[in-house]
Amino acid sequence: MTGRRLSDETLTGRPPVDASMTLLNEVMRQPLDPSYAAAARRRATDEPRTSRPLGVAALLVLAICLGLVTASAAVQLRAPQPAVLAARALLEEEIVSRRDQVEDKAAQNAALQTSIERLRDSALETTDPELLSVLRRDSVVSGTTAVRGPGLIITIEDGASAAEDQRALVQDTDLQVVVNALWEAGAEAIAINDQRLTATTAIRSAGSAILVDLVGVSGPYTVVAIGDRNGLETGFARSSAMRQLEGFASSYGIKTTLSGQDDVALRAGKLPVLYSASAIDDDNGSQ
Questions:
Q1: pTM passes above 0.85
Q2: CATH at 251
Q3: What pLDDT was estimated at residue 252?
Q4: What keywords are annotated for this sequence in UniProt (predicted)?
């Protein structure tokens, strides 16, 4: 077997044995990235970091441009569009017009109801005065006829901090408590902001609004009750409703004023429409 000696040229031309492990060798010999190493040397020697004025200026200009674009977009989004403004104005006009129409119809209805009652009274005065007396009494109790007499006026106002604290707002339940206390004190007729309470009247809320017989009312809320003046004043002053209002005044600033009156007038309430119930004609229950 003949051996062959490799020349130096042949050995020089061959790649290193670990040529395929260059990346691993680089990681082992220089684990720190050159830029990190340079930053570490600067911190160690307190070498001031060189800055690029052109780059800083470019970043500043870019930030200003982005801010202007963002502000412009926000202004455009918040600004109402002309079409929206026109539609809103039209809707407001329609609401005002419809409200005026409702008020006119309500006034016409009240006038017609008064005329009907007068015709009925004139017809029954001679034919059946006893029935006329019963009808008048029932209409007063049911709240469907206008009444006047001595009574008590209670005014309730929202607290000064109502805009920030909803607890300072007068709630529908507060009016319910006041009305119940007045009935208990002997009231014969009650109205809230000129809305007469009848046998079917509901006091409730719709969002932040208070509805009395489906009619929106706003503060200050004026509750007018007709009855014996002294009895109403004494009975309401001793009621739990008065104590509740006094607590609201001290806690939330809700104001309540009471005023006895020798003569107040209440208009008639809505005549309820019966869809299912009907009157019984005799004692046997036949219709």
A1: no
A2: 3.30.70.1880
A3: 92
A4: Membrane, Transmembrane, Transmembrane helix
